[in-house]
DNA sequence: ACTTCAATAT
DNA sequence: CATATTGAAG
């Protein structure tokens, strides 16, 4: 109930004291003649900053930038402080600085204490800043890599395939419409657009490249098709002429891997399953289109596949997808009785990610940038930017939006 | 523990 | 080709 009174409140007495920026503060500081005043203000502000730092320390993961800024500010102020003290050689409030804590650790500071060079301040400052930045970047990049890490985590032996996957991610979109999706549906979705839309993965921010595995910057072509791993009896469906090229490329990727690693898992891998085909929206759209062309029900996997004109796609894959498709379309026929009104919303089948149960749903599709919900009325009137359907070759009328044409999809969750 | 999806088996 | 089962991933 009582209002909490932060330290700041008690501190900020003078109106001039609340700076808009650090620079502002410094300027203000410079106008002060009395050294002691200067120092006290500096300390004051510093302590507040450090206080703040402590507060957000708990959230440093969530607020890396805040930490960064704060640290930076603190460093700057500290340097200023030292400047003051050293200039005037006034020890004065020396003891008054119990506040040094985490920040103190930064090597730079120590150096400062010893070396003490005013001239270098700029560089020092920069250096500090840089170092922190680096830290941050490191984190980022690592997190980025984490994706792969994640994979590795699960299966070391599949390292090779994993690698391939990554590649697939990074390239995607531009070249071939589909495969855009990795294995991530929900959580990973964030990555998708990232890799998809930025031609250059951020990776190369490197201030100092960590020894982490460096990925090859450039891989132009890759196969999104089925991985070569297919082996097995997968021979059929190879009719695709262009598919051959992929393979060659794919083989090039492994060089980074240690022979032992790749050799070992390779053998036992024989039994492993084929890499999952990812049915990206585009791919699915094609699928639906083909299906429609074929008159829906009578469509056979083979026909569908041919119509889709996606090379590397196998009958099995189509078949499997068809199965799922049918399952979806059939769902809950009688459930709510004759209530067909329900409808459309449920009818659109987006790749699973959008299933969200959120009841809010309808209102603001805009909420999510990618809201795929455009009604099927007429041809895809929606032309949602995200979808942006690469018109590309979609020779046929893309006409209808893709959907599992079912009308009812239990709204909400199943009762369990 | 539960669901969904795609690969395989029948 | 249709359906059932399996295995993986979330």
Compact overview of the structure:
Helix content is about 45%, strand content about 0%. It has about 425 residues and is an all-alpha fold. Among the domains are: about 20-90; about 280-330, Arc Repressor Mutant, subunit A.
What does this structure look like?
There is one protein chain. The protein has 416 residues and is mainly alpha-helical. Among the domains are: 22-88; 281-330, Arc Repressor Mutant, subunit A (Orthogonal Bundle), CATH 1.10.10.60. 44% of the residues lie in helices and 0% in strands. The chain has 14 helices and no strands. α11 (281-293) packs across α12 (301-308).
| Number of helical regions | 14
N-to-C terminal Cα separation, in Å?
43 Å
The residue fraction in helices comes out at 40-55%
Which percent band covers the strand fraction?
under 5%
Order of helices and strands: HHHHHHHHHHHHHH
> Taking Cα atoms only, what radius of gyration do you get, to the nearest Å?
30 Å
Q: What is the averaged pLDDT score? A: 53
Organism: Medicago truncatula (Barrel medic)
Keywords: DNA-binding, Nucleus, Transcription, Transcription regulation
Region (Disordered): 104-168, 232-279, 354-416
GO molecular function: DNA binding; DNA-binding transcription factor activity
């Amino acid at each position: 109930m009582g209002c909490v009174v932060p330290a700041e409140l008690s501190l900020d007495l003078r109106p001039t004291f609340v700076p808009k920026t650090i620079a502002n503060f410094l300027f203000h500081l410079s106008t002060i003649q009395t050294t002691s005043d200067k120092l006290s203000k500096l300390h004051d502000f510093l302590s507040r900053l450090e206080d703040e730092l402590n507060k957000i320390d708990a959230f440093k993961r969530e607020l890396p930038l805040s930490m960064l800024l704060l640290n930076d500010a603190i460093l700057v102020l500290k340097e200023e402080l030292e400047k003051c003290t050293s200039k005037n050689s006034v020890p004065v409030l020396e003891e008054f600085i119990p506040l040094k804590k985490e920040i103190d650790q930064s090597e730079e500071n120590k150096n400062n204490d010893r070396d003490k060079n005013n001239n270098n301040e700029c560089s020092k400052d920069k250096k500090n800043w840089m170092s922190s930045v680096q830290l941050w970047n490191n984190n980022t990049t690592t997190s980025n890599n984490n994706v792969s890490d994640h994979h590795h985590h699960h299966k070391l032996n599949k390292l090779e395939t994993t690698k391939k996957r990554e590649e697939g991610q990074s390239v995607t979109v531009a070249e071939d419409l589909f495969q855009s999706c990795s294995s991530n549906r929900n959580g990973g979705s964030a990555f998708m657009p990232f890799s998809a839309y930025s031609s250059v993965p951020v990776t190369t921010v490197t201030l100092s490249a960590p020894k982490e595995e460096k990925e090859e910057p450039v891989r132009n072509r890759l196969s999104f098709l089925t991985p070569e791993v297919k082996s097995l009896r997968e021979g059929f469906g190879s009719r695709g002429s262009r598919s051959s090229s992929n393979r060659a490329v794919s083989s090039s990727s492994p060089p980074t891997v240690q022979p032992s690693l790749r050799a070992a898992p390779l053998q036992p891998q024989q039994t492993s399953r084929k890499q999952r085909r990812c049915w990206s929206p585009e791919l699915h759209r094609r699928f639906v289109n083909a299906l429609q062309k074929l008159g829906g029900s009578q469509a056979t996997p083979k026909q569908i596949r041919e119509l889709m004109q996606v090379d590397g796609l196998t009958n099995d894959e189509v078949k499997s997808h068809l199965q799922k498709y049918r399952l979806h379309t059939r769902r809950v026929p009688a459930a709510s009785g004759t209530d067909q009104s329900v409808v459309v919303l449920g009818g659109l089948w987006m790749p699973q990610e959008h299933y969200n149960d959120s009841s809010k749903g309808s209102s603001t599709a805009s909420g999510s940038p990618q809201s795929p919900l455009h009604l099927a009325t007429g041809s895809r009137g929606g032309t949602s930017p995200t979808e942006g359907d690469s018109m590309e070759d979609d020779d046929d009328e893309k006409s209808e939006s893709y959907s599992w044409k079912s009308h009812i999809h239990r709204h909400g969750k199943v009762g369990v």
